[in-house]
Amino acid sequence: MTPDLNGLAEHASAVRRDVVRMIGVARSGHLASSLSIVDLLVWLYWEVLSLRTDEPSWEDRDRFVLGKGHGCPALYAVLANRSFFPREELWSYRRLGAMLQGFPEVRRTPGVDAPGGSLGQGLGLANGLALALRDRASVPSVFCLVGDGELQEGAFWESAMTSAHFSLDSLLLLVDRDGRQMEGATEDIMSLEPVRDKFLAFGWAVEECDGHDFASMEEARARLGSRRGKPGCIVANTVLGKGVSFLENDPSGGRMVLGRDSMDKALRELEKGGD
Amino acid sequence: MLINLRTAYGEELLALAKENSRVVALDADLCGSTQSVVIEKNFPERYFEMGIGEQNMISVAAGLSLTGKIPFAHSFAVFASGRPFDQIRQSVCLPKLNVKIVGSSCGLSDFGDGATHQSFEDLATMRVLPGMTVFCPADAVETKWAVRQAAAIDGPVYIRLNRNDLPVLFDEKTPFETGKPLVVKEGSQVALVATGTMTAIAMEAAGLLETKGISARVIHLGTIKPLDTAALAKAVNGVRGIVTCEEHTIYGGLGSAVAEALCAAPLPMRMVGIQDRYGQSAVCYDELLVHYGLTKENIAAAAEKLL
């Protein structure tokens, strides 16, 4: 397991268990791609973002945009564990009329800062937020987490060009580089490499980290520094389905529907503290 | 008197921006044409040139609106509505964000560039999105009203603008209201329901019909959505039939909206509009209006068929 930075590993385990439970109860949801971003979200929400959980709309808060909206069970579980809303809400995820929809909806869910779901649009939204917030006395940071497959959307690169053109150094992009997408490996479907060089060529400051190692995330952020005038990107190397052995790099691309048995099995693994 | 709609739009956008510091503008490398240049010149810190990238422009506008800004995003109608349709649906209309999309050079009005730059589908595509308000002003006065009204509405708005000098039909006393039909000429036998540039032409058609002894009522619909169905039914009360007139495909635009609104108590209808075709280049705007059957004669002929 990753070194425990201020109890983050414990939070991550709790969040993973909630993700498995909520998708298990709903019998629907993108489990593997939610699990791959749990550690990144836990790091952001417990260590990095400046937030007020009792005042979700605090104007000077840092903003978070989830580009890969299908990973929202991880975001919902994080927000519930950070007390943005009662944890009971998690068990009605994806039910008719529920607060927690299959994709994040701004205004519907406390703590959700931006809409998400149609891939490739998150960075554009984050650009707009960063442009709007940059005139404030204390400039809030804007964080955006995208899936690697999402980089295949052309509009993403319009946005990447824009972030650099406007010197949005309050913007930090995290790329969940699990190397997988719906129908297989990203490099087989539509190759993305060299990811780092692409961002460098677009005028970004780029670092890499182990997306399941909190210290590695911290180091990458420190290496990026204040990056004067450049948007920052951290390519986080992750494992699809991280934390549940039979999901990790599952060849089905994590599309497995979680039956009662596998949910129990996954929860038992997570109770033990994972790998 | 003729006034250019783009000029009127720019004047009002600037006036609005002077009064309301939340108003910001974005453009996709067409600010001189769309007139969002007035913001760039006067409030450079509130103008965002997005380059030739309409999809990112709409996403950025959505992001700006999340902090309370009122972004007006501009391009030609065909690009503003077509290229970023998914961004408009997913990141603007679904979350009900306060983004205003201004589709300039609509319909045939970019006569020189031809089919690729002419937009006959934008009323249809913008109208199907839940929560979207769609304005299609007929003259400079209504264009200015639409700018103000768009800013007053808390939610997505699409404004469709012609690029040419057009006759002034209204004045500051005209009682514009979102979703309400405006009877601009009384008449008893047939109703000419028109939007945008076609309202002025429908007025001419009513004059032509009068010389033939036919009394035509002219109703302007400056809002394509939402549409006050009861008010529309009342406005067409007593006539024997309706001719809809639009510089847009007959599929999904004004004609369809009117037919849908009145389908519970239908009247015979004819639709004057683009007949499921693309545009083309021409040396002047009027030449295209004639070629595509958008003249007073076409409207009058359609009205006569109803009687």
TrEMBL record, chain A:
Cofactor: thiamine diphosphate
EC number of this enzyme: 2.2.1.1
Gene3D superfamilies the record matches: 3.40.50.970
Keyword Transferase: yes
Keyword Transferase attached: yes
InterPro entries in alphabetical order: THDP-binding, Transketolase_N
Keywords: Thiamine pyrophosphate, Transferase
Enzyme class at the top of the EC tree: transferase
Residue stretches making up the Transketolase N-terminal domain: 11-263
Signal peptide from the UniProt entry: none
SUPFAM superfamilies attached to this UniProt entry: Thiamin diphosphate-binding fold (THDP-binding) (SSF52518)
GO terms for MF: transketolase activity
PANTHER family named among the record's database cross-references: TRANSKETOLASE N-TERMINAL SECTION-RELATED
Protein family according to the UniProt entry: Belongs to the transketolase family.
Listed name of the protein: Transketolase 2
Gene source species: bioreactor metagenome
Automatic annotation (TrEMBL), chain B:
Keywords: Thiamine pyrophosphate, Transferase
Database matches in InterPro entries: PDH/Transketolase, THDP-binding, Transketo_C/PFOR_II, Transketolase-like_Pyr-bd, Transketolase_C
Pfam family, one: Transketolase_C
Cofactor(s), names only, from the UniProt record: thiamine diphosphate
EC number: 2.2.1.7
Root EC class: transferase
Single GO MF annotation: 1-deoxy-D-xylulose-5-phosphate synthase activity
SUPFAM superfamilies: Thiamin diphosphate-binding fold (THDP-binding), TK C-terminal domain-like
Span of domain Transketolase-like pyrimidine-binding: 3-168
Assigned protein family: Belongs to the transketolase family.
Protein name: 1-deoxy-D-xylulose-5-phosphate synthase
Organism, as annotated: bioreactor metagenome
Taxonomic lineage: unclassified sequences, metagenomes, ecological metagenomes
